[in-house]
């Protein structure tokens, strides 16, 4: 039946459902969705464990975030059955970490540095104060695009000049600037300081998420920085990132943007911005999971052609059109959504 042929009664039901969703922004705490998140997380962790030989540094990094979020969930007041189920998920994530991490030392020195200094669960534990109202969608400051159509939006996102190689070099410089065991000054080159911190222009997609991750690595490694400045920077970054994510949602969630959407949710959600865990975003993460438990590039899942979709340089293609980077991010995003859901009663709104 077409939309125009719907009866008034059906329209009323649809309107009611939409209104209920809008009214319940951020309300994920239903037993059904609890179960769906846990089952989805179990499937993705099972897939990663089964295909562990194909998981690289970026893929394991997503599992590290899943470990951190599951640790936090297990500190909550839970029923005995919940605790058993969630502990099993945590044990599976821990096993993945123990199996994969030793193999990653077979790479070059840069990879070994990332494995030793960044892919470490202890580095990323932190309390998260989830709050709504701290970020609002902030469009880019450009007149080149109107963003009214899919083509214009994709053209804008494709204008990014972000280089993964340069980003990695700046992160390695940050790591080398001092110990992570005590507060210290982190000395950056002029180029890295401009590219990753001071540049007023926000490169779309991975350009801005890598800048956010850069600050998060600096905080985790105890670089001396003004806490008020850090909050302002991350709030500005995530306000722009929220614009990208919201525009993506308006277009019905574009297949080719799943990887970057999961990265946006993982990193801005880690800062406590509850807008990135809105029901429609979490539902999309659940819906995007394949029957095999993994995540990847739908164009590859349909055609098997690598040229059919954008593939991150650092991603390993595995099976069923999935890749380790998106699959790792799927694990981190699902675990974060579960953590957010268990803390619903403690979430505040800023007006």
Number of helices: 15
Count of distinct structural domains:
1
Helix content: 55-70%
Radius of gyration from the alpha-carbon trace, in angstroms:
20 Å
Question: What's the mean pLDDT score?
Answer: 86
| Overall SS class | mainly alpha
Instruction: Describe the largest sheet.
Output: 2 strands, parallel
Q: How big a fraction of the residues is strand?
A: under 5%
Q: Strand tally, please?
A: 2
Low-confidence stretches: 1-32, 303-311
What do these coordinates show?
The protein is globular and about 50 Å long. The chain has helices at residues 8-23, 31-50, 57-74, 80-100, 109-117, 121-124, 150-157, 164-176, 190-198, 206-220, 227-250, 258-270, 279-288, 298-303, 324-342; strands at residues 131-132, 348-349. The chain starts with 7 loop residues before the first helix and ends with a strand. The chain has one domain (30-349). Helix 8 (164-176) packs parallel to helix 10 and helix 10 (206-220) runs parallel beside helix 12 (258-270). 58% of the residues lie in helices and 1% in strands. The chain has a two-stranded parallel sheet. It has 15 helices and two strands. It is mainly α and 351 residues long.
């Amino acid at each position: 039946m077409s939309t125009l042929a719907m009866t008034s009664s059906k329209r009323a039901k649809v309107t009611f459902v939409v209104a209920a969703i809008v009214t319940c922004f951020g309300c994920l705490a239903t037993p059904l969705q609890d179960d769906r998140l846990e089952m989805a997380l179990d499937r993705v962790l099972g897939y990663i464990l089964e295909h562990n030989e194909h998981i690289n540094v970026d893929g394991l990094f997503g599992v590290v975030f899943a470990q951190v979020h599951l640790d936090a969930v297990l500190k909550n007041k839970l029923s005995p059955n919940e605790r058993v189920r969630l502990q099993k998920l945590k044990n599976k994530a821990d096993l993945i970490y123990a199996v994969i991490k030793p193999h990653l030392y077979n790479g070059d020195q840069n990879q070994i540095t990332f494995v030793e200094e960044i892919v470490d669960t202890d580095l990323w534990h932190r309390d998260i104060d989830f709050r709504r109202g701290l970020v609002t969608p902030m469009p880019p400051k450009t007149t080149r695009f109107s963003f009214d159509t899919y083509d214009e939006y994709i053209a804008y996102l494709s204008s990014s000049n972000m280089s993964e190689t340069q980003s990695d070099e700046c992160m390695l410089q940050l790591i080398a600037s001092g110990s992570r065991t005590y507060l210290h000054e982190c000395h950056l080159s002029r180029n890295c300081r401009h590219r990753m911190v001071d540049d007023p222009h926000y490169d779309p997609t991975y350009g801005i998420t890598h800048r956010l991750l850069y600050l998060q690595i600096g905080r985790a490694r105890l670089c001396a920085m003004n806490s008020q400045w850090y909050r302002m920077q991350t709030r500005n970054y995530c306000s722009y990132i929220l614009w990208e994510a919201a525009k993506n949602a308006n277009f019905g969630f574009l297949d080719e943007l799943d990887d970057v959407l999961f990265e946006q949710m993982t990193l801005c959600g880690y800062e406590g911005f509850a807008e990135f865990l809105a029901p429609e975003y979490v539902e999309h993460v659940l819906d995007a999971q394949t029957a095999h438990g993994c995540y990847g590039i739908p164009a590859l899942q349909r055609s098997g052609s690598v040229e059919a979709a954008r593939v991150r340089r650092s991603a390993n293609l595995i099976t069923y059109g999935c890749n380790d980077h998106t699959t790792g991010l799927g694990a981190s995003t699902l675990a974060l959504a579960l953590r957010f859901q268990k803390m619903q009663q403690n979430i505040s709104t800023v007006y």
